[in-house]
Design a protein that fits this description.
Structural class: mainly alpha
Strand order of the largest sheet: 1-2-3
Order of helices and strands: HHHHHHHHHHHHHHHEEEH
Shape: elongated
Strand content: 5-15%
Number of helices: 16
Radius of gyration: 35 Å
Length: 378
Amino acid sequence: MTDQEKQHTQRKENYEQALERCDGYTQTLNFLNSIPSEDLTLGLAERIFVKEPELFYRIPDKFKDRELCDTAVRYDGSYLKYVPEAMKTWELCMKAIRRSPYAIAHLPVSMKNPETYLRLVRENPRNLKGVPRQSRTSEMCRIAFDNTYGKNKTDYSVISALTDPSMLYQVFREQDDPKKIRFLMDILPHDAALITPKVALEAVRKNSEVLNCVPPHSITAEVAEAAVRNWPEAIQWVPRKLRTPDICLRAATCRRELSVYVPDKIAKERNIYSFHRRVEELLRQPLDYHRYKMLYEGKPVCTECVWTRCGVIDYCEVNYNPNKNRLGLRILTESAYRERRQQQQAYKAGQNRHGDTDTALRRPPQKVPQKTKRGLKW
């Protein structure tokens, strides 16, 4: 053996010993980077892969033989990305795809066609996740959807890969658990083409907290109103142009600190939101959203323990004349007060059942209270 051969053998042994001493990914990567290209051998490359498979991408292509590539894609199908093009046979590619659908993105150009994609989705519906989004046809989505969620309502494996909003709408329509709605919105790409206003409305009706996942262009007035009605804190994700006085009133009457999301224009103009602040200042106490709405529409509401400059009114009726823009108080007997409260509660329940559509409150004949006081007017 010549001196050169002895030196080569000695270096090989030293490299092998050094590799054995490497602990973890970083040390092994540093070792690989430190080896001169002329000293790296196929055997050493294979030993590096066995020690740290994640370093397959760093191994030079000339040391990636058929056996090493086969082992790599069996370990992780997405490693097909680092397989030399000459090694990407149909058999090897199928092995990679069986391990990971995301290997589809790294197929040779000759295999990237609608026929191949459709075949792969038919073989395994979860392969839809690996098909480029722009290449996913409605037929592919339907095959994948019908063979997963269509057979098992708890199988969401291809939901995030769908490109057809109608299928997504079906899922949200059939799911009622708020936690499931949250999960589904979290795994979906925030794509306005997929999360349409119709899909968004179905989602926020069941869990208004998901409004933060809805693309701004899919938040319509109806979506915003439904979200804030069910969860007032959703106002923070409502686009400013959709923050109406009514939506602002809902939020502010639920939690006072949410008034920071009320646009200055709404707070200063004459509307139901500024009206509620005026009423609150008069009564020195807050009312709920429904009573503010009734009062603003000209319907009387009742309350108790109202402080005035003339003393405390135990039971009273608040009146508002929209034409004259005047507020007034009228004293009630306790029995009349109880009767009015029942009517108001029935009105509120009716609004909740019908989505807050306006319903008239019929006032029964009033008894004249024993003691009256001139209404306080603004």
